[in-house]
Amino acid sequence: MSGVxxxxxxxxxxxxxxxxxxxxxxxxxxxNPVQAxxxxxxxxxxxxxxxxxxxxxxxxDLGHSTVWSTALAGAVKRAFSGWREHCESDDAxxxxxxxxxxxxxxxxxxxxxxxxxxxxxxxxxxxxxIQACVDNGxxxxxxxxxxxxxxEFWPFHSGQDETNALVEGTWVGPAAEEELEFxxxxxxxxxxxxxxxxLQVGLVHAPVGPTSNPHMKDYRTLKIPFFDVVMFADxxxxxxxxxxxxxxxxxxxxxxxxxxxxxxxxxxxxxIIYSDGEVxxxxxxxQPKDDVFDLTGITPEEIAEAVQKSTRGYLAAVAAAALNKxxxxxxDFVRKIGEAAGFDERTIALLMAELPxx
Length: 358
Fold this sequence. Notes:
Elements: E1 12-16, H1 33-50, E2 56-58, H2 70-96, E3 108-110, H3 129-135, E4 139-141, E5 146-148, E6 151-156, H4 161-168, E7 181-182, E8 190-192, E9 199-206, E10 208-209, E11 217-218, E12 229-234, E13 239-245, E14 248-252, E15 269-274, E16 279-283, H5 289-292, H6 300-324, H7 330-340, H8 345-354
Parallel strand pairs: 1-2, 2-3, 3-4, 6-9, 9-12, 10-11, 12-14
Antiparallel strand pairs: 1-15, 5-6, 7-8, 13-14, 15-16
């Protein structure tokens, strides 16, 4: 374990999975979606302050769509504002007392999810909602390994080759292999990252979840020996902190949004990552489902359609990523991925309709 204790006291960061800020009210939700998510964020900020966290870290998909209104960007900034105010107030007090300021990230640290970037095209981030939050000082997008306090974060953004390699078990770590320590038995597995004095944390936005199917990899099948902790986002259903191999923990607390009737009973939580590598989840108080969902007259057909709509949206994003890389002709790829998911002709046609116009 490369994490350390600072003055015999564990330091920590707070990690939040998919958030999906949105202005349009989802079907069967009866409340205001911006207010609902903002309340959860304010609660997380309060807990981060109470826990004396050194950072709040997001797993991507800050917004539900790539382009936001100015009003939504302002609402997101206000939701997180208590964190910056706390950091600045603490720094001012330390300065007045002639003490060194506490090491903290005033900006919310984040990676990029598939809902944050238009069709996985990272060359067109300038007009996105998440970039607006960078510009207004709310978040910092991690583009390279980033150290703060006892932690070193490694970003793996959605849809990038490095992220896919990590999930498939073919990522070999940083290029400067001479600075790494290898297994003494000579089998070539990387056992430690650059700085053993910090907890090495991978932040990954990729379809890794509690089960395996054509569009999701089971977290129990991962082969990731490089990090101390790997935190996942993208799949909204959580899986528990799990030791894959000695010294490596993977976790996903799940999304904090419940926009879909399939999510009505799902617990909403965030994660606490301690500097010695322990990961724990803490529940976020939520309104009872009967207060935020109209659950009258739900039919089996509506539930089935909700499942298909969720899956179609994901598959459309995957297809868009592949099309950007010119890996396959448009219709051929859509049909291949649709058939792999077991969809009928009508559903495949709906998937095609959701793809960006070329």
